[in-house]
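[job 4471] stage=fold_predict status=RUNNING
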Amino acid sequence: MPNVINKQQQIRGFLLLIASFFVIFSVLGGVIYWSYTRTIFQNSDSAITQQIKQFNLAGALRDSEDTNRKSPMLLQSNTLADVWVYDKDKHLLLDDRIPESLQEIYRKQFKYRGNFISSRPKTVQIEGNYYRVASVEFIDNTRNNSGQLVKYGIITVNVNDTIFNLNHFKKVILWSFGTFGLLALMVSYWISLKNMKPIIKSWQQQQDFVNNAAHELRTPMAVIQGKLENMLTHPESTVREQSNAIILSLSEVRRLTSLTNNMLTLAKSESNMTRIEKEPTNIADFLSRILAPYQEMAEFDGKQVLLSAHVNQPIYIDQKRIHQLIVLLVDNAMKYSEAGATVSIAASIEKRKFVLTVADTGRGISDEAKKHVFDRFYREDKTGSRETGGTGLGLSIAEWIVRAHGGKITVADNQPKGTVFRITLPL
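[job 4471] inference complete, writing structure tokens
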């Protein structure tokens, strides 16, 4: 089922990306084509517009401002545009100097058509040729250069070469669209896969967290349930007789409390519910207060806790969280160290960064365990006692605290034996 959901998510992401690329390419292609079309017809449209202006200046057009001339003569057309004039019956009027054979061709080719009628230039196909065309209407008594009365006019510019270039540009646009479409398909598929990886990883981490949490919670609850049921089967027993069961149950309750608190801390960290509130801190005094009880406990167990703090400036940290970090690391070092071991805590400034190290001379951590030591619920010694085995969440919380401060935590071997945790925080 999860695989099906992930596949559906990937498909939805893929289709969304494809749709986005399609819209972008369509809009971009449309804008480019529109801009190119306007530019490519600029010369021909300018010639048509210029010719209309000449007619207007001559007062020959029906909508001309100057219509005082009783019988205006049409001016010569410009070199780019051709002017075809028609009488009131829409018959083409041609100069007598044009050969009869050409006149028949022109009359057939430029027969007055409905698609000629346009006050603004437009593209019309005539007998296999392409023209930019605009129409005008003359005032009464307007005559052509031959003295013939004219009523309508068609201004044309041959744009065969322009249409050829435009069609070629269309092909370029389509080929580009197809090429970019294929690239978009591949890129969308790659992005959808890439985007799904952290989602799948996060989902897997969540599943692992839930499964591990359920396992960890189940064990102490089973122990407590078993001890309570056993005591119920012996109601005549005294507290003294059941002291071992009570002590073990209380131990499991404490373990359960610690586990739930740690899980809540991690849950809040992932949901950004926990804020880091930094304040200037005297590191030497801060560490001394935290380590004082551990130094007393260490003497009782035949161990040593040493502090070396060479920091002469205030360090901005969240005291509550860094206190939790140091307790986790020192408690971990004490837990896995034998009598005679030394736990050393050192603080210093290196390369404009605050560096804190917690080193012990205990049994150390294997190279394989170093890769997973910050993973949730990971314990190298899975056969250890429940009193010292921990929950496997302490170092995960430690890593989160360091990352929340913008720092980095690493683990390495201590010399000649033991483990060193090194925390680097920005100043």
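[job 4471] summary: Confidence is low (pLDDT under 50) at residues 383-388.
[job 4471] exit 0
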